[in-house]
Write a structure and sequence with these properties.
single chain, 416 residues, alpha/beta, Rossmann fold, 3 domains, 7-stranded mixed sheet, 14 helices
């Protein structure tokens, strides 16, 4: 008999004895109690209260507020749903969150506060690709897992599990789509940070696959509205399509400047930059400029008829918590999906919430992936190069006349 089955047999026997003695407290805690297989104390796991605290940092206000509100709303909604069903193995969940205003320094402060004061057991769905890497030293020092950060670059860090394709991979898939449309000359515009580097890496890797000429790689300063020089350089280069890695406001400005210059080449961005499936970028641009805009898809479109997405939609319609008032539904669906995968992982921990068991279970997912219908399978492997747990992305296109997005390319891995 396995150790786990022996433990279950022992716990069952103890439960029978407790029941015979009329121990109501054990009954109230569930068949085994929260953290029943966890040795000692683990940060964020309150066995007595039956509560596990998880955390997230989001740009709830500031430049990226529509995305941050939606991302937070999706997480809170997922927590509320699992708690309403009684939690997992005797544990319910509490979400601690902080507003980072899309600022790197504030995100670092938030993460430290949630580790040291809120005692979070894990972070889920934290957003801000340019800021997340700055939190890694604190996350590594504390040993706190970070599950499903939204679009950072891939790094071999034990605590970090990417559940969506990286921006580099999404950029490569945009270029694959350009190639299918007959494009032979491509350019990129990116921020002067890791976000931009990923776009330039994508174009360097994928353009040669299709024999494309790279005509320009232009940088724009973070949070700057000065995009004109980059736009003119791309137009002058003779590019037939453009990959961008900018924030939503900058992307809208680029689209407007292209329209003003009479430049109608296709433009594609990663999911975060484009806000594919929602209004984050397209609502900031002239409708004519935004028409035809392309965005990589990390998650199904919010109007999908898939049962999982329909369940999310019903919950989102009824939800009235933080992030609902101004949140973008497409980002809500993204973190709801990330959280669904996270709670499936928690269920597989079988009451042992030690970080050793978390990592062992997560790194074994390649043999038995977590399947959430709205995102690619989650199939993490051990390090090195194993915590990019999902691969492949789709492409969606915006129609200004109908104010809607349509998926124009299936979820596929980059061509090689």
């Amino acid at each position: 008999m396995s150790k786990f089955l022996k433990l279950l047999a022992l716990l069952f026997a103890v439960a029978l004895i407790a029941a015979a003695c009329g121990n109501d407290d054990d009954d109230a805690a569930g068949p085994a109690g929260c953290g029943y297989a966890t040795d000692g104390d683990v940060r964020g796991v309150d066995k007595d209260a039956g509560v596990i605290t998880i955390g997230t940092s989001q740009p709830f206000t500031g430049r990226a507020a529509p995305a941050g509100e939606g991302l937070l709303g999706g997480l809170q909604m997922a927590v509320d749903e699992v708690n309403a069903k009684g939690g997992i193995d005797g544990c319910t969940f509490e979400l601690a969150w902080e507003d980072d205003r899309f600022e790197i320094e504030q995100m670092v402060i938030n993460v430290r506060k949630m580790i040291e004061q809120d005692n979070v057991w894990a972070f889920v769905g934290t957003a801000g690709s340019q800021a997340i890497p700055s939190t890694y030293p604190d996350i590594e020092a504390a040993g706190t897992p970070l599950w499903g950060p939204v679009s950072p670059a891939d790094q071999d860090i034990q605590e970090v599990y990417l559940t969506n394709p990286t921006r580099t991979e999404q950029g490569r898939i945009c270029i694959d789509y350009f190639a299918e449309q007959g494009v032979t000359k491509v350019a990129a515009i990116g921020q002067d940070n890791e976000l931009g580097e990923e776009a330039f890496n994508a174009i360097d890797q994928q353009a040669p696959v299709h024999g494309m000429e790279i005509t320009a790689k232009e940088e724009v300063e973070v949070l700057s509205d000065v995009v004109g020089p980059a736009v003119l350089a791309v137009i002058d280069s003779g590019a037939e399509a453009v990959l961008t890695a900018l924030d939503n406001a900058q992307n809208a400005l680029v689209l407007d400047r292209f329209l003003e210059a009479g430049f109608d080449a296709p433009v594609c961005s990663d999911a975060g930059s484009s806000g594919a499936g929602g209004p984050n970028t397209v609502s900031l641009a002239n409708p004519e400029a935004a028409n035809g805009y392309l965005g990589a898809l990390q998650v199904a479109l919010p109007d999908s008829q898939a049962p999982f997405v329909q369940n999310w939609s019903a919950l989102w319609d009824a939800y009235d918590g933080p992030g609902k008032e101004g949140g973008a539904p497409n980002f809500s669906l993204q973190t709801y999906s990330i959280a669904a995968a996270f709670f499936e992982l928690v269920d597989r921990l079988d009451g042992d919430y030690s970080y050793d068991n978390f990592h062992a279970t997560a790194e074994a997912l390649a043999g038995d992936p977590i399947l959430v219908p709205s995102i690619p399978p989650i199939a993490c492997r051990p390090l090195p190069s194993g915590h990019s747990c999902a691969s492949g992305a789709g492409v969606a296109q915006y129609n200004a006349e109908t104010d809607s997005w349509t998926q124009v390319r299936d979820f596929l891995q980059p061509a090689s």
